[in-house]
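The data layer described in this paper is built around a simple, fixed record for each protein. Such a record has a labelled line for the sequence and another for the C-alpha cells. For reference, a complete record is included directly beneath this paragraph.
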Amino acid sequence: MVGLEEFLADSVLDGGNTLSKTIKLGIRCLLVKTKQNTIEGLVPGSHLHPKPFYPIVFPPLSLSMSNTFSRRHFLSTTTAVAAGLGLSSKLSAFSPAQATKPFKISLAQWSLHKPLFEKKLDNLDFAKVAKEKFGIEGVEYVNQFFKDKAKDGAYLAEMKKRTSDLGVTNVLIMIDGEGALGDQDEAKRTMAVENHYKWVEAAKFLGCHSIRVNAETKADYEEGKKLAADGLRRLSEFAKPLDINVIVENHGGLSSHGKWLSETIRLTGASNCGTLPDFGNFYEYDRYQGVTDLMPLAKAVSAKSYDFDAAGNETKIDFAKMMKIVLDAGYHGWVGIEYEGNNLSPDDGIAATKKLLEKCMT
C-alpha cells in the first residue's frame, strides 16, 4: 500500500505536472513528522471519521528538475498542503507569514485596587473580569486582596477552579507586607524570608510561575545589596524545588535604582531569582535606563500607566521605546497592565493601556 505521505506528495500537482522531487521530499518529511496525527485524520481518539483530503492544484510553474524553488515558494507550497490537511499549526515554525505575537498581555490586580478596596469587586471574580470584560487571559494577583487565604486550601482551590474554567493563566502573586528581606537584623530578615514561604506554596498550587517580592532594606548601597541578596537567596532556595521564581520589582528605596537592583539579583547566584521591571517606580533614576538594567534578568514585566493624551499615548512613559527595550532583550513573556492613574476610571485605564500595548505588537 502506498504510504500516506507518498500519496499526498504525488497528489499535489502544479498545473498537471508533478512537483519536483525536492518539493515531494519536503512534503514527505513534513508528513512523516506529523504522521501520527494525520493518519487518523487529525481527529484525536477517532478511527471512524477522518477529515477528508482535498487535492490541491497549483498554477503552472514550468519547472524542470534543474529548477530550484525559492525558500518562500517552498514554504508557501508546503503550508498550503498543510492547510488543506488542517496541519497549519505544525508549520508555524516554518512559515514566513507566522503571526505569533511578540509578547502576551496579562492584567495586574492592582489596576483594580479601587473597586477591590471598596468591596465592589471580590478577589474570586478578578479572573472573570479580566477575561470577560477586557479579553485578557493572564492574571497577576496582589496578596493584599486575599491576605489571610495563603494557607486556605479550599479558597485557593476555588481560585484555581475559576481560572481553569475560564481558560485564564495564573501568572504570579505580588507579595507585600511580609517583612524586609534586606533587614539589618538577622532574626527579622530570617522571619521575613520564612513569612514568604506560604506564598511560594500558594503560587505553586495556583500554577503561577513566580512570586514578586520587595528587596527592602534601610542599609546603605553596598551593605543593603549584601543583605537583600542574602534574604533573596534563601527564599529562592526554598522556592526552587517548587519550580517557583522569586522576582523583584523596582518598588521604592534602593530597588528603584536599576544598577543596584541588577547587581543585587546577580549577587544571589540563584537561577530562579530575577526581576520584574516596572515602567514607573524609578523616581530619580532614568526609567529607560532602569528597564535596560533590569531586562537581562527579567522573568515578568509590568507596563505601568498613569494618563493618556488624545492620541492614546501614555503622557509620562514612551511605551514604544519601553517595549523596544523589552523585546530587544529577547523577552517574549507576559507583560502585565498596571494602570495607576486618576483621570480615567480603572476600566478605561486598563482598556487604554491594553490598546497601547497592542499597538506595540505591530
Observations:
- Residues 233 and 268 are 5 Å apart (CA to CA).
